[in-house]
Structure formats: structure tokens, C-alpha cells
Write a structure and sequence with these properties.
The protein contains two helices and two strands; from the N terminus they run ααββ. The chain is α+β, with helices and mostly antiparallel strands and 73 residues long.
Length: 73
């Protein structure tokens, strides 16, 4: 599964799985480093998804003085 096909929920599940592996202490150092790197990429992906979602629920409108302001949708 590539990142393009990955949903936020799937990425979060994978991230939770990685955290469990790392907390267990039962994987090798090399595997821990690889898991950590994958986790970092998943965190970045999730943050981007959340930022995109936040922008979708905001709207740009004019106030009474004609200035633009960003409001919740």
C-alpha cells in the first residue's frame, strides 16, 4: 500500500502498531530504527491530512470593514 492509497485511519493504525513494537522492546536495534523512521513518515502524513481537513472546514469572508477574515465553516 502506497501513501497515495493510505487513509488517515490506516496510517494511524500502522503508527499505533509501530509504537507497540517499539514499546515491547522485543525487536532488534536495526528493526527499531527502521520502525522509527517509518513512524516519522506516518506522523508527517497524518499531520498533513489533519491540516488539509482543517482548511476544508474554514472559509474566507469579509468583515463589516471589507477586510478578509478566516472563519470556521
Amino acid at each position: 500500500m502506497t501513501k497515495k492509497n493510505l487513509t488517515f485511519e490506516e496510517a494511524l493504525e500502522k503508527l499505533e502498531s509501530i509504537v507497540e513494537k517499539l514499546e515491547s522492546g522485543e525487536i532488534t536495534l536495526d528493526d527499531s530504527i527502521a520502525a522509527f523512521e517509518e513512524g516519522q513518515k506516518l506522523v508527517e502524513f497524518c499531520l498533513k491530512q489533519l491540516q488539509t481537513a482543517e482548511q476544508k472546514v474554514k472559509k474566507l469572508s469579509k468583515d463589516t470593514d471589507g477586510n478578509f477574515e478566516l472563519n470556521d465553516f
